[in-house]
Design a protein that fits this description.
Elements: H1 3-14, H2 19-29, H3 33-47, H4 50-63, H5 68-78, H6 86-96, H7 102-109, H8 118-135, H9 138-147, H10 153-165
Length: about 170
């Protein structure tokens, strides 16, 4: 991402530029905002640039830009431990509900992140279980069944609850 693009997003966060101006400036270089995000998420992920990930996740959330390609990039980033946006990325994946993200959400439920305390880690795990339950497709229900025999009692409890709510 260029310094100009970073500064543009920072101005957007601060409210010193309008949404329209932001979109116009991004559209001057890219055919659409999704294209910008897809390209920049790949670049930031390859470079392990947590600062750029922070900015890009903000843009994804603000404009609800959830193309399947962006979701695929976010799934790849979710597996990485070098950033601190796991919760925000999970929220985006839960909102867009692409079936291709089910494995990522399942794996996240079983993950731990060194920068999170016990309560935060479990909060993310429970959110993963809730998202899988709300997706209510064969694949997400299969993952819930796997989580229902998890050694972690909190994850197991919520997975069983989600499965019983499906009936």
């Amino acid at each position: 991402m260029t310094d100009n693009e970073r500064n543009l997003i920072r101005k957007l966060i601060k409210g010193s530029i309008s949404d329209d101006l932001f979109i116009r400036k991004i559209s001057a270089r890219y055919s659409c905002a999704d294209e910008f995000l897809e390209e920049q998420l790949k670049e930031a992920s390859s470079a392990h640039n947590a600062s750029d990930i922070n900015l890009l996740v903000y843009v994804c959330s603000k404009y609800r830009l959830y193309s399947e390609e962006c979701a695929a990039q976010l799934c790849q980033i979710m597996k990485q431990k070098w950033h601190r946006k796991h919760s925000d990325i999970l929220h985006i994946l839960g909102t867009c509900r692409y079936s291709m993200s089910i494995d990522c959400i399942y794996e996240t439920a079983l993950s731990s992140f060194s920068y999170m305390d016990y309560a935060q880690s479990h909060s993310i795990a429970v959110e993963c279980v809730m998202i899988l339950g709300s997706m209510a497709c064969d694949k997400s229900l299969e993952k819930l069944k796997m989580l229902s025999v998890c050694s972690d009692p909190l994850i197991r409890y919520h997975a069983l609850k989600q499965l019983s709510d499906q009936k």
